[in-house]
Specification:
ABC transporter involved in vitamin B12 uptake, BtuC; mainly alpha; 13 helices; globular; 2 strands; disordered C terminus; two-stranded antiparallel ribbon
């Protein structure tokens, strides 16, 4: 496997972790987030600063996840009183706030960004396998959460918060749990991106990136782990294999979001269910 193929595997793995992290918040718990790239960027910058301090890459990865999860918990606390459109606007504001902060801070490189030397010591193949293993672990974790009591509580909160509260579910607790878990995973993805790219700039975590992540979740099927996995692979590789698409990426993702929400809101997961032959009753 050549360097280009290893690069593709690494990028797909990072995006799988990132998309599934948003799926935990939006797909499982029904909390709309339009600023998820901010947590991705938080993990990336935290990992970069740890690497520049001379600490091991794995320490930076852990710190990136913890810092992003802590920021996500704070945002979750601030968002407990808002729902639906207001929550979407709030999280979008967090994304713009993040960009404003990193662009004005000289220790974070400002508009120029930060350059980081590879510190994982794994080589191209080793790093690609490491990222793929973390992506596989994220898939397993998503499936585990979905089938656990936590997943059932997430479903109840997503369906109707008031009814969930009436049957004894601590809505605030599960909302905060979803935010903390999802943003921590996004921070881990950001740390991996730092080592993959070698340079991080504010535009790598802008609003367009948040929409890209959301498109992966919606096109795959909100709440479907394997649907999101499939959509992430396709939407990551498509602009890379067909270079001309990259110039129209935002138009493509916007069109896909419109088509999916209008004609099959369940995304790829719904299409696959429709394609299955109906079982004959005995």
């Amino acid at each position: 496997m050549g360097a280009y193929e290893l690069s593709l595997v690494t990028l797909v793995g990072i995006n799988v972790i990132l998309a599934l992290s948003l799926n935990l918040i939006t797909g499982f718990c029904g909390q709309i987030s339009l600023g998820h790239a901010a947590f991705y960027g938080t993990g990336a910058y935290a990992c970069a600063l740890i690497s520049q301090a001379g600490l091991p890459f794995y320490a930076g990865l852990a710190v990136g996840g913890l810092v992003a999860g802590a920021v996500g918990l704070v945002v979750g606390l601030a968002s407990l009183r808002v729902r639906h459109d207001f929550l979407a606007i709030t999280t979008m504001g967090v994304g713009f706030l993040f960009l404003g902060i990193v662009r004005q801070q000289e220790p974070l490189g400002g508009e120029i960004g930060l350059t980081i030397a590879a510190g994982h010591g794994l080589g191209g193949l080793g790093f690609a396998l490491f990222v793929a293993a973390l992506a596989a672990a994220t898939v397993w974790f998503s499936l585990y959460v979905k089938r656990s009591w936590m997943g059932f509580s997430f479903d109840a909160v997503a369906d109707d918060e008031d009814t969930a509260r009436l049957v004894g579910i601590d809505v605030a607790r599960y909302k905060l749990t979803a935010f903390a878990l999802g943003t921590a995973l996004a921070g881990v993805a950001g740390g991996l991106y730092t080592q993959y790219s070698g340079i991080i700039v504010p535009d790598a975590f802008g609003f367009v990136v948040s929409i890209t992540i959301l498109a992966m979740v919606v096109v795959g099927g909100i709440g479907s782990t394997f649907g999101v996995l499939g959509a992430t692979v396709v939407l990551t590789l498509l602009p890379l294999v067909f270079q001309f698409i990259d110039d129209y990426k935002l138009l493509l993702y916007g069109g896909l979001l419109f088509i999916v929400m209008r004609f099959f809101p369940g995304g790829l997961a719904e299409l696959l269910r429709r394609a299955r032959p109906a079982r004959r009753s005995p």
